[in-house]
């Protein structure tokens, strides 16, 4: 591919550089900045990003800049994306960043399981976002809520909040519903419900890291079916790299008010892992009515936990001792 004519745009201020490589980034196939009242729709017509050329350049390490998204809106509002098939994105598929009032519904997003970083929908430092009634099968997280990267995201300070994700079905070697790992502006008030996941790496993944800072608060995930997964639930404070060496390792994220309920999993290798930070334990983590069944054989899926406080009710297999069976007042399940 001849990239000499492919336009470069500046890094997002909340990232400080391209997500993959320093410097600018290649402009998304469909790109909008400062727009209002945008509709992308069709009778299930296909937008094909022909991403395999980009994936191969990524694998061969011949890229100079970060790959383009398939669709990106920046600083925009009142967006509807519906009834379209998106396939083979070079990088993330649909990326609303610094946006408000975004609806994505009745879409199909497809990419091979081995395609690198082909996230489905990534609301990023955006508010009032609804993602519903869609099928996503890609090489990375199906839906990942983000809000900027380390010191750049902290300085930009724009959280993601008011995010609703419902009636989404899909498959991925990574996560089904993800928060992070770039959460430096904060992520609050997220509801994900009625999610069906097949052949997954992780069903539900909340991920951050030292140096991120940011508050992750009031996250509810409910009515999830997971079939054939490496891990059912993972909430971890040691995930994701850094844009440069300027991050503050003492900028610790705060994770509180995580409610996960009504989850049924079969063929799940490990039920869950909750790995908080020693100097910033995860608090008010509430698990309720969760059943994970392992692969065939005597081994049942287990839990591993550290630096977490919370509550568990009717969870099988029974999770870690750090999760009390005595319901605290903050866990309104």
From TrEMBL:
Gene Ontology MF terms: polygalacturonase activity
Keyword Hydrolase attributed: yes
Family membership noted in the UniProt record: Belongs to the glycosyl hydrolase 28 family.
GO BP terms, alphabetized: carbohydrate metabolic process
Organism: Glycine max
Source species, domain of life: Eukaryota
Keyword vocabulary terms for this entry: Cell wall, Glycosidase, Hydrolase, Secreted
Record keyword Hydrolase present: yes
Gene name of the record: LOC100785590
UniProt cross-references to Pfam families, sorted A to Z: Glyco_hydro_28
Localisation per UniProt entry: Secreted, Cell wall
Lineage: Eukaryota, Viridiplantae, Streptophyta, Embryophyta, Tracheophyta
Name the record gives this protein: Polygalacturonase
């Amino acid at each position: 591919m001849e990239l000499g004519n492919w336009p470069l745009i500046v890094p997002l201020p909340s990232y400080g550089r391209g997500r993959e490589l320093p410097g600018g980034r290649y402009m998304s196939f469909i790109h909008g900045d400062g727009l209002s009242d945008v509709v992308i729709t069709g009778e299930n017509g296909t937008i094909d990003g022909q991403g395999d050329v980009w994936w191969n350049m990524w694998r061969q390490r011949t890229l100079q800049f970060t790959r383009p998204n398939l669709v990106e809106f920046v600083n925009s509002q009142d967006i509807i994306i519906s009834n379209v098939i998106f396939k083979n994105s070079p990088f993330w598929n649909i990326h609303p960043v610094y946006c408000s009032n975004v609806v994505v519904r009745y879409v199909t997003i497809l990419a091979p399981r081995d395609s690198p970083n082909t996230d489905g929908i990534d609301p990023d430092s955006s508010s009032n976002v609804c993602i519903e009634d869609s099928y996503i099968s890609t090489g990375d997280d199906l839906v990942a809520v983000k809000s900027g990267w380390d010191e750049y995201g902290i300085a930009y300070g724009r959280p993601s909040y008011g995010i609703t994700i419902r009636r989404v079905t899909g498959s991925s070697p990574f996560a089904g519903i993800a928060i992070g790992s770039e959460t430096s502006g904060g992520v609050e008030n997220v509801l994900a419900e009625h999610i069906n996941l097949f052949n997954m790496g992780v069903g539900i993944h909340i991920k951050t890291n030292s140096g991120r800072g940011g508050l992750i608060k009031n996250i509810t995930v409910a009515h999830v079916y997971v079939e054939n997964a490496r891990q059912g639930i993972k909430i971890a404070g040691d995930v994701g790299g850094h844009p440069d060496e300027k991050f503050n390792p003492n900028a610790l994220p705060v994770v509180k008010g995580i409610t996960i309920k009504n989850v049924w999993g079969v063929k799940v290798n490990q039920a869950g892992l909750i790995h908080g930070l020693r100097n910033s334990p995860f608090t008010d983590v509430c698990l309720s009515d969760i059943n994970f069944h392992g692969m065939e054989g005597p081994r049942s899926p287990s839990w591993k936990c550290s630096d977490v406080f919370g509550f568990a009710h009717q969870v099988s297999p029974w999770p870690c001792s750090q999760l009390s069976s005595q319901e605290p007042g903050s866990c309104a399940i």
